[in-house]
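Hi R.,

Here's the chain you asked about this morning:
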Amino acid sequence: MPQPQRTPRKTSGLQHNTRFPLIRIPENRGLPNAMNVGLEYWLADPQIDWISYFQDDVDINPETLKVLEQIQDQRDRPLLSGRDALEHPNFGTGEIAGYPVLYKRSMPGQHLHAHRDYWRSIMPIPTPYLGAPKPDQGKPGQGADEDWWITCWSPHSIVKRGGYVVCVPGLVRSFQTSADESTWGNLSELSVESRTIAAPPAAIPIAQTITQIRAAEQNPVQPIVAEKQAAGKQAIAVPPDLSLAGVKVLVDGYNLQLTKGTGIKTYGISLIQALTLLGAQIDVLLSRSGYKSNAILDEVSFLIIKLRIVAFSSY
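And here is the predicted structure, written out as tokens:
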């Protein structure tokens, strides 16, 4: 069996000139593998409660960890980030310990700060292919997907628990600000005005007194979604070139009515949720042929599908 090629050891000098350990992995097996190794190293110490992960192309405010220490909470806010990502919509705004925060359902991986129990719950971080990310492997535009797994894909992620990633903007930023220097075009480094539409996200009431702050911190943040108003759906922070506000979309509901769904049914549900998130007005074309042999079951099935579609569009 061929042996893996080993790169020359070039980090010995750096290791002696820093206060931090450098873990040498024999070969490049990808970002998720490196994260699993590094996180396990720190999790082996039971006295370490919080671990911050930074990628190597960021500038860090010296007060970052001090600020996060005032906001973090093992139960209600176990996952935070110090870098806003405007391509990831806001689902609410608020203030904790005097700092403005944004509530997200996904975040990129430049900076993720989490409690040890949270890291442990989503590990091991899977990899879509060996050595990810690589420009010539995986699906077009696919990275390592570690950020998606950590924030919202893992069955134990904060989003699957009904919570949010808490973003404290301005603590961390990428120093590669040109779109040419970034795989993803550095959308997050553009100005807020150029990446959001006129209507702001729904605001989470800000506690005005110490008593209110303490009471708010004792209860988990409740899900916040754009509510339907008389004039239509309230817009959330969506890039203007992606907004579908005012657009009417008719979705074929044939596969949504199948008693045993297929992958197309799952796609249809995701499509309705995504279009709703982007502000589109959704209509679904349904039929009354689910149970041709039983008119009562056919009517019940039709009403259930209608209720489910309403739930999908309220995502």
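One quick note: The chain has a mean pLDDT of 75.

Cheers,
M.
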